[in-house]
Design a protein that fits this description.
3-stranded antiparallel beta sheet; single chain; disordered N terminus; 7-stranded antiparallel beta sheet; alpha+beta; 168 residues; 4 helices
Length: 168
Amino acid sequence: KVVLILICVFAGASTMAQADREFIDKANGYKITLAGNWRSESYTDAVGRQKTEFVFENRDLGLMKVTRENLGRSALQDVVRREVDEFTNCFTCIFVRQEAFAGGSLSGIRVALFYVEGDRRMVGTFYYLQDKEAVWILRLNGRAGSPGMTHEITDSMARSFCTVCALL
C-alpha cells in the first residue's frame, strides 16, 4: 500500500509540474499559455535587449521564438509566402502545408514544415497571427516525433496567444 501511495504522489507531482503556465512579456506586449514541458528562457542579446525563447525539455526537442513585424503595405499571405520560400531555400523540405488558423483573440495562417537538418528529421510549425497592421509570428521547430511538437500542443499555445493591449 505504501508503494502505491508513493507512486500516486509522484505521478500527481509530475502532472502538476506539467500543468499549463501563463507567460506574460510586458516589454513586448504579449501573453501565452505554455503547455506540458514548455518553459521560458530569458537572456540578453548582444545589443543588450531582453529576449525570451521557449524550450520544450531541451532546444533539440522544441524551440519557439516569438517576433512581431509590421505588415506595411504587404498582405499577410505575402509575408507567409516570402518566409516559406526563404525557409525552403535553406532546408530540404519533405512537406509543406499551409492553412487558415482560427486562434483565440488573433487569427491568421498556420504553416507546417517537415524538413531535414543534417541527419535529423525535423518539424516546424509557424503561426502568423494578424494584429491590425502587424503580424505576430510564433516559430516552433523541433525533432519530428517530439511530444511538444504535436499540433494539439502547438495549436493550444497559439490559440492562447494574445497581445497585452487586448487584455486591458
